[in-house]
């Protein structure tokens, strides 16, 4: 099995959209048959290898359990291309036998792949365009002649050399390497005897929304979206069942056509992703484009940017949206899967109890729904508390959620290494505060007491006893409601006053030059908070990897996710 290293680099990570019309000129991707699972196109120029190293460096930061990177020596094309695996011939390499005659790009196409992003050589097709067949033939002769007992076969007047692991076919427009049947399928396309993937409506629609000439452009057909997602998150085939269970439960908990519901329930028929590295090498962009036969429903309301003025500067993670109650339903649906987080997110150093045991079966969608119903039923037994009527009905407005680090000073009583801050618009802020006071008080056996007002905010604390420090603080002003732990509410009110706002920091403003982030992550602080290592240090404020993601819908059934990563190299 050949590991899809290129596919891993393609995913992580992460990055902005610049619309461009579909290309009229034929490219290497135009030889990919229409029934293939997908392909990856790599632009090859003088800067490509450095850019690939930067992408891999970011991948290693964001998925440290899966991606390794030698920062001192870097990586060569051989680390990204399976050339040495396909042709075990001494004194031959991709850089020696392919790169000199390669015409500006290459394509790795896949007839199929599994949920761990593994593929057999028979299902692999490498397309190497060339303007000089003689140079290509001369360079590849050493590879072909070095095979043990090679055979030859002619198909559509093209001679195919079948080697120990892979076959090779040389044509006037491209060299094909891979499985014999995969090469024959490409020759059918070249002869215009079978359809090409790039002529399909879904591909053309995705391409029209793609960034202009990205370093990497990948495309996946709809049937392979779930295996691709699973492979990118963890790389273990068995974990796909967990995503299927989550998707099935989510479709019952939420009857809308939001992105996560569509993605996990086969609602998209294709997806494309373009990765680019800025000229300064310190900003990475990824545009993820998902196509549905009908356009996903919009989240409708416009986000009120004023909420972000309450997010403090030292935030390690911020997420915002237009429907807090919908977000909470998604979070409740995910809760029963929390003990399987290590399997779902294999790239993170998560430790969960018992999930490695063969005695614990992966939950089904029905199991997840039953767990959520049991949870909501238990909540309703707290003095006849109605989760929907007493709380969620008041929280349909815009919201911003933030985590503030305190790794060496966990929140008392909760013992979390972070403070939680939720700022939301409410249809009735006082009713929302009363509802959450009732719920948290009963759930944690905490006592409410009124605190001194601050800047017009009415404050309520929830503490284990009448004299203890509050575990939770709730704040209400006009139609705004704050739920926080520790000092987060005071920090939010100070930020509203104009002190130490996240949105005024260079890190936020750099990430938001293209679009306002729906998600913001300070990666270095995130790992230091949740997965600290002995003697670990957090980089200074100007030398951290930060990630921003912005989601939205467009015409023609397109859903876009734009991701930006800043990498302050050399600082």
Give an overview of the whole structure.
The protein is built from 19 helices and 22 strands. It is α+β, with helices and mostly antiparallel strands and 571 residues long. Helix 10 (240-253) crosses helix 14 (365-380).
Task: Give me the secondary-structure topology.
Blueprint: E1 2-3, H1 5-11, E2 38-43, H2 48-62, H3 77-80, H4 83-86, H5 94-97, E3 105-110, E4 118-119, E5 124-129, H6 133-145, E6 151-155, E7 158-162, E8 167-170, E9 174-178, H7 180-190, H8 201-208, E10 216-221, H9 225-233, H10 240-253, H11 259-264, E11 270-277, E12 283-291, E13 317-321, H12 324-334, H13 341-344, H14 365-380, H15 387-391, E14 399-405, E15 418-425, H16 429-444, E16 447-454, E17 457-463, E18 472-477, E19 480-485, H17 488-497, H18 506-511, E20 519-522, H19 523-530, E21 546-553, E22 558-566
Antiparallel strand pairs: 1-4, 2-3, 2-10, 3-5, 5-9, 6-7, 7-8, 8-9, 10-11, 11-12, 12-22, 13-14, 13-20, 14-15, 15-19, 16-17, 17-18, 18-19, 20-21, 21-22
Main β-sheet description: 20 strands, antiparallel
User: Roughly how much helix do the residues carry, as a percent range?
Assistant: 25-40%
Number of distinct helices:
19
| Structural category | alpha+beta
What's the quick description here?
The protein has 571 residues and is α+β, with helices and mostly antiparallel strands.
List keywords for this structure.
single chain; 571 residues; two-stranded antiparallel ribbon; disordered N terminus
């Amino acid at each position: 099995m050949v590991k899809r290293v290129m596919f891993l680099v393609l995913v992580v990570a992460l990055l902005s959209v610049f619309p461009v019309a579909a290309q009229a000129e034929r490219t290497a991707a135009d030889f990919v048959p229409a029934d293939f699972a997908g392909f990856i196109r790599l632009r090859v120029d003088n800067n490509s290898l450095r850019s690939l190293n930067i992408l891999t460096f970011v991948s290693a930061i964001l998925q440290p359990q899966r991606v390794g990177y030698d920062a001192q020596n870097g990586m060569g094309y051989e680390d990204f291309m399976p050339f040495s695996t396909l042709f075990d011939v001494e004194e031959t390499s991709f850089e020696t036998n392919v790169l000199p005659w390669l015409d500006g790009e290459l394509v790795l196409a896949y007839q199929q792949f599994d949920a761990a992003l593994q593929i057999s050589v028979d299902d692999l097709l490498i397309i190497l365009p060339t303007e000089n067949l003689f140079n290509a033939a001369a360079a590849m002769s050493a590879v072909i002649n070095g095979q043990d007992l090679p055979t030859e076969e002619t198909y559509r007047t093209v001679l195919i050399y079948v080697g120990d692991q892979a076959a090779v076919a040389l044509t006037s427009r491209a060299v094909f390497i891979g499985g014999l049947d995969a090469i024959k399928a490409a020759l059918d396309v070249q002869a215009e005897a079978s359809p090409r993937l790039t002529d399909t409506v879904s591909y053309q629609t995705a391409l029209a929304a793609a960034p202009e000439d990205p370093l990497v452009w990948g495309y996946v057909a709809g049937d392979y979206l779930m295996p691709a997602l699973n492979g990118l998150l963890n790389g273990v085939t068995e974990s796909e069942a967990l995503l299927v269970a989550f998707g099935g439960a989510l479709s019952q908990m939420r009857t809308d056509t939001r992105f996560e519901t569509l993605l996990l329930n086969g609602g998209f028929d294709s997806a494309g992703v373009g990765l680019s590295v800025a000229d300064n090498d310190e900003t990475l962009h990824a545009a993820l484009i998902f196509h549905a036969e009908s356009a996903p429903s919009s989240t409708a309301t416009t986000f009120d940017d004023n909420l972000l003025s309450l997010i403090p500067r030292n935030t390690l993670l911020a997420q915002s949206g237009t429907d807090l109650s919908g977000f909470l339903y998604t979070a409740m649906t995910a809760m029963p899967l929390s003990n399987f987080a290590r399997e779902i997110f294999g790239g993170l150093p998560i430790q969960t109890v018992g999930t490695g045991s063969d005695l614990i079966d992966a939950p089904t969608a029905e199991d997840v729904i039953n767990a959520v119903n049991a949870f909501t039923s238990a909540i309703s037994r707290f003095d006849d508390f109605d989760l929907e009527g007493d709380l969620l009905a008041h929280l349909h407005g815009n919201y911003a959620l933030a985590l503030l680090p305190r790794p060496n000073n966990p929140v008392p009583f909760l013992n979390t290494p972070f403070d939680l801050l939720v700022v939301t618009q409410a249809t009735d802020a006082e009713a929302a505060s009363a509802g959450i006071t009732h719920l948290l008080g009963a759930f944690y056996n905490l006592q409410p007491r009124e605190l001194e007002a601050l800047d017009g905010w009415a404050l309520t604390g929830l503490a284990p006893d009448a004299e203890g420090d509050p575990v939770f603080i709730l704040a209400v002003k006009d139609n705004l409601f704050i739920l926080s732990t520790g000092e987060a509410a005071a920090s939010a009110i100070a930020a509203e006053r104009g002190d130490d706002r996240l949105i005024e920091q260079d890190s936020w403003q750099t990430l938001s030059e293209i679009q306002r982030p729906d998600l913001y992550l300070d990666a270095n602080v995130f790992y230091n908070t949740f997965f600290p290592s002995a003697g670990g240090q957090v980089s200074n404020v100007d030398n951290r990897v930060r990630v921003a993601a912005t989601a939205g819908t467009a015409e023609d059934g397109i859903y876009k996710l734009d991701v930006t990563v800043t990498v302050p190299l050399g600082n």
